[in-house]
Amino acid sequence: MAPLSLYSLVSLVYGVARVVADLPLLETYADYNDGVFGTRPNQSYYSSDLISPRFQVNVWNKSASTVGSHIFLAPGIPGQGRSPMILDSKDLSLVYADPKWDGGTDTRMQVYNGTQYLTFWSGVDWKGHGSGGGMMIDPSYRLFKNITTSNLDTGADSHDFHLTNDGGAIMNNYHTIFADLTSVNGPVNAEVLDCAFQEVDIATGEVRFTWKASDHFDWAENLADGYVPDQQHGWDWFHMNAISKTVEGNYLISIRHLRTVALINGTDGSRIWQVGGVHNSFLDLSDGKATNFAFQHDARFVNSSQTEITLFDNHNMHTNSPTSGCSVDCTRGLRIALDYDAMTVKVVSELYHPQSVQAWAQGGYHLLPNGNVVIGWGVVPAFTEFTSTGEVIMDIQIRPWDSVPDGGGPLYRVYKLDWVGEPTWSPSIAFVDPNVYVSWNGATKVASWSLSGGASHISLEHLVTVPKNGFETAIAPPKPVSFVRVDALDADGNVIGTTNVVDTSSGDSVGSIIRG
Ligand SMILES: *[C@@H]1O[C@H](CO)[C@@H](O)[C@H](O)[C@H]1NC(C)=O
Ligand SMILES: *[C@@H]1O[C@H](CO)[C@@H](O)[C@H](O)[C@H]1NC(C)=O
Ligand SMILES: *[C@@H]1O[C@H](CO)[C@@H](O)[C@H](O)[C@H]1NC(C)=O
Ligand SMILES: *[C@@H]1O[C@H](CO)[C@@H](O)[C@H](O)[C@H]1NC(C)=O
Ligand SMILES: *[C@@H]1O[C@H](CO)[C@@H](O)[C@H](O)[C@H]1NC(C)=O
Ligand SMILES: *[C@@H]1O[C@H](CO)[C@@H](O)[C@H](O)[C@H]1NC(C)=O
């Protein structure tokens, strides 16, 4: 159980009706990184079994303009698994989590047929790749679609679940094949982890396009370690981690172990061009800095003009140093411009973590509509928002730098997007003397909470209305009452949800009320 925050205590002492149940954000860099709050700082609640991370705020300029009402991530919490999580952008308070979704990589909002869905991957994770499906959850948190690949040996992989603009869903896939690897000093009949992707029509389930890496790329293009025997499910030679479709129907793919981003022809699957890698097609006008990205993630065209690409350049591998303060081979967010007439490429911008970090794995680059960028630093437990000119306006740590992410997960990608959630379930209430605690997992429209109480559970009268503040709001009843209930009010004062009635002598629920 979470202790009362300092603010709560102060509020009680001064007799303020509303107290805050969420613990305050931390701004104690040294203590946080010295482990004073544990290796996984977290917070629990009275009215909910959920646990959420306790963040360290390193930079936050709240007056800087930004967009996106919510932050989407899947931090992985021990006991709660790796599942989708939504935070409120204005105060980082928990908005939604549900451990029942086994997975959560690539958690975000995507629009399909005019409706916003919460989308993410769920399935079996084999550390580095997986097999499962892409989930589409409607704004009431009901499963709308669970989509996977067909006629491949495994299901959708954990790296990417990307909706197209024409009603399709693109899924990545990792599966084992056997191949002659003598050209790269491997055996004649070697086990190889091949990559594929598939586009499926969301409405009909029909497969629109299937593409396999080994049909179009050579083993010798691997720019990781060359052939490595005895890897789980085979030599991970390709490692595709992002796929998106262009308006012309081609596909931009990010291939980590080839250190390249390639445009794939959506008709015959051939390579139209690639930037970086063994067969780089572009002359680098930035002294090699536009093409020397390595082990990258999340490569996307900036827009339909396809003249610029953003990506998360891990830039190193086989290090395990999630600490800050690197001096060489630091990880960066990279934006490059392509000129298809001259076949040149140049750096538009590089975004480094304010303290310089090396993220050997994972990571994402989310370009916001106003030009700001949100970077989730992968295995480095932080996310940062930059303005379009590169100024850091938010830098948040989710764990101490050098804590090992056991039992949870790194921040694969972090997105900032608008979201409206209207759960089918009711708000939750708990009475822990002397306060009533209330929360509503997933609800985004609650503006205030109205507390009613009385001597009998069938005659409750309105006592006080307080603004919602954070995930869980504590309300001190202004007078002793035997039974309490809380109504959720929207910004117009309409009741949009009602908790059970609770007996304050036992803390037990006596059921829900029936409205006349
Ligand atoms: C939450 O933090 C406490 C205190 O450091 C720690 O003992 C506990 O294991 C953490 N719980 C989770 C789920 O990380
Ligand atoms: C915060 O952002 C505003 C608006 O972009 C800017 O004017 C101000 O200088 C920033 N403050 C700090 C402390 O960086
Ligand atoms: C898209 O939404 C419209 C309007 O709600 C509906 O009539 C139509 O069936 C939907 N199309 C698909 C493919 O789901
Ligand atoms: C999605 O569908 C697959 C079967 O295709 C099933 O194994 C899996 O449990 C489903 N996932 C969810 C979360 O319903
Ligand atoms: C894609 O492949 C088709 C069929 O081979 C070809 O006609 C078309 O020109 C190719 N497109 C590009 C952009 O290379
Ligand atoms: C697309 O991005 C390019 C490069 O940033 C920009 O010059 C162009 O105006 C953008 N086009 C659209 C349609 O947004």
Helix-strand blueprint:
Blueprint: H1 6-13, E1 18-20, H2 29-33, E2 42-44, E3 51-53, E4 56-60, E5 70-73, E6 85-88, E7 94-97, E8 108-112, E9 115-125, E10 130-137, E11 143-147, E12 161-163, E13 168-179, E14 190-201, E15 207-212, E16 240-245, E17 251-255, E18 260-264, E19 271-276, E20 283-284, E21 297-301, E22 308-313, E23 332-339, E24 344-352, E25 364-367, E26 373-376, E27 382-386, E28 392-397, E29 415-417, E30 428-432, E31 435-439, E32 448-454, E33 461-467, E34 473-475, E35 483-489, E36 495-498, E37 502-503
Parallel strand pairs: 20-24
Antiparallel strand pairs: 1-34, 2-3, 4-28, 5-6, 5-29, 6-7, 8-9, 9-10, 10-11, 12-13, 13-14, 14-15, 16-17, 17-18, 18-19, 21-22, 22-23, 23-24, 25-26, 26-27, 27-28, 30-31, 31-34, 32-33, 32-35, 35-36, 35-37
This protein binds 2-acetamido-2-deoxy-beta-D-glucopyranose (6 copies).
Structure at a glance:
This protein has 516 residues and is mainly β. Among the domains are: 4-22 and 426-511, Immunoglobulins (Immunoglobulin-like, Sandwich); 115-278, no CATH class. It is built from two helices and 37 strands.
Could you characterize what this model shows?
With 516 residues, the protein is mainly β. Among the domains are: 4-22 and 426-511, Immunoglobulins (Immunoglobulin-like); 115-278, no CATH class. Helices cover 3% and strands 39% of the residues. It contains 2 helices and 37 strands. The strands form 9 sheets. A 5-stranded antiparallel β-sheet has the order 4-28-27-26-25, with no helix packed on it. A hairpin with a 5-residue loop joins strand 16 (240-245) and strand 17 (251-255). The longest helix is centred in the N-terminal third of the chain and has 8 residues, at 6-13. 48% of the residues are buried. The structure holds 2-acetamido-2-deoxy-beta-D-glucopyranose (6 copies). One 2-acetamido-2-deoxy-beta-D-glucopyranose is lined by residues 265, 267-268, 272.
